[in-house]
Write a structure and sequence with these properties.
Blueprint (H helix, E strand, L loop, with lengths): L1 E11 L5 E8 L2 E8 L1 E4 L6 H13 L9 E12 L4 E12 L13 H6 E7 L1 H6 L9 H10 L7 E3 L1
Parallel strand pairs: 1-6, 5-8
Antiparallel strand pairs: 1-4, 2-3, 2-7, 5-6
Length: 159
């Protein structure tokens, strides 16, 4: 099974809502879920560099990697798609954004264009009450950490 290293950003707006992307399995429209911004590392990138680049590509928001909060958490899991599985090792960072952005400024790859259905802001109460699949399941904890600007001495290990 192929392994992939990735970084993700828990991006909050001034209201404390988190931006999530609604994505689908490109080979099975019935399989879909919500995730934070982020993606795979490019050769030679650190996790924080990956997070800043992915944030820019997926939202158009540019930031210096040092401006990201974290690392907040890490997680390793098997991503199951209809035609393949991948072991993904993720590192989570946070950012509070004060600016509006337009997905028109994003630079999505062909895979992102085919798999991202929409993006929207979610409140903590919406995260807690939804029946939609959201990754990581511990996202409310990460949102609260970003709201408090609370970086643990050691990144949380998520299941």
């Amino acid at each position: 099974m192929k392994a992939r290293t990735a970084a993700r950003v828990v991006l909050l707006n001034p209201a404390g809502e988190v931006l999530l992307l609604h994505v689908k399995d490109m080979h099975d429209d019935s399989r879909h879920w919500w995730i934070t911004c982020g993606g795979g590392a490019e050769l030679g990138e650190t996790a924080v560099q990956t997070a800043a680049r992915e944030l820019s590509e997926e939202t158009g928001i540019e930031c210096d990697p040092a401006d990201l909060l974290g690392p907040l958490a890490s997680r390793s899991f098997v991503m199951e798609f209809k035609h393949h599985s991948t072991i993904q090792h993720e590192t989570y960072y946070g950012m509070q954004c004060d600016e509006d952005f337009d997905f028109d400024e994003a630079i999505w790859t062909d895979i992102e264009k085919a798999s991202i259905v929409e993006g929207r802001w979610w409140s903590l109460s919406e995260l807690s009450s939804t029946t939609d699949v959201i990754y990581p399941p511990q996202l409310p904890t990460l949102v609260q950490m970003v709201q408090r600007r609370d970086v643990p001495d050691e990144p949380l290990v998520l299941e």
